[in-house]
């Protein structure tokens, strides 16, 4: 079976600032998925997801994500999203690629709360950590800041799940290209590292 790359991004519900909501936890309210095989996008998925534990979105959430109550109420149940993810990821050799680790944490917790089986079984890749390690950054970089550092632009609109998933795919390709370039580059010789003319002048 051909190894598949799944680029996943979720947007979550959030509480209002400084307002305590007993037992609150973030729920997936929008999902964006990009499935890739042999360098070709074979499927794109975008949908709002109906929250159930805390169905009414807070003002902060609607404002931050530019999302409406009606949009999420017209979305799909979490069970449908879980079913789709299981259908897309049927091999342990597939790569599940996200920017940061919150997407998988929230998905796992939402599945537990809804008594649903966690649908993913592939190799999990936090691309933000790979990016950080590859470039030696001290701090973790935001998704769209990372693509700007490449001199590129994000796809569509930030904090739209499918657009963020496509932007993650874009950065993945840029990082993989850089990795291959670094692997092909020959290690520098001592002559590349030391300016012998200056060294001899100092010794004279």
Automatic annotation (TrEMBL):
Q: Which residues form the Exonuclease domain?
A: 4-181
GO terms (molecular function) for this protein are: exonuclease activity
Q: Which Pfam families match?
A: RNase_T
Cite the entry's keywords alphabetically.
Exonuclease, Hydrolase, Nuclease
UniProt cross-references to PANTHER family, sorted A to Z: 3'-5' EXONUCLEASE ERI1-RELATED (PTHR23044), 3'-5' EXORIBONUCLEASE 1-RELATED (PTHR23044:SF61)
What name does UniProt use for this protein? 3'-5' exonuclease KapD
Which organism was this protein described from? Bacillus kandeliae
């Amino acid at each position: 079976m051909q190894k598949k790359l799944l680029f996943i991004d979720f947007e979550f519900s959030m509480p209002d600032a400084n307002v305590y909501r007993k037992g609150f936890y973030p729920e997936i309210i929008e999902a964006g998925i990009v499935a890739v095989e042999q360098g070709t996008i074979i499927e794109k998925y975008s949908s709002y997801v109906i929250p159930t534990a805390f169905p009414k979105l807070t003002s902060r959430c609607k404002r931050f994500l530019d999302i409406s109550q009606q949009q999420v109420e017209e979305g799909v149940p979490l069970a449908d999203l879980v079913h789709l993810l299981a259908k897309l990821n049927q091999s342990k050799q597939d790569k599940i690629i996200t920017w940061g680790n919150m997407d998988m944490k929230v998905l796992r917790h939402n599945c537990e709360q809804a008594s649903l089986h966690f649908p993913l079984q592939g190799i999990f890749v936090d691309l933000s950590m790979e990016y950080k390690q590859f470039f030696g950054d001290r701090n973790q970089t935001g998704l769209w800041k990372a693509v700007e550092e490449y001199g590129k632009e994000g796809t569509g609109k930030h904090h739209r799940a499918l657009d963020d998933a496509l932007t993650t795919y874009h950065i993945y390709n840029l990082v993989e290209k850089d990795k291959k370039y670094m692997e092909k580059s020959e290690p520098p010789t001592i002559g590349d590292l030391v300016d012998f003319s200056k060294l001899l002048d100092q010794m004279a």
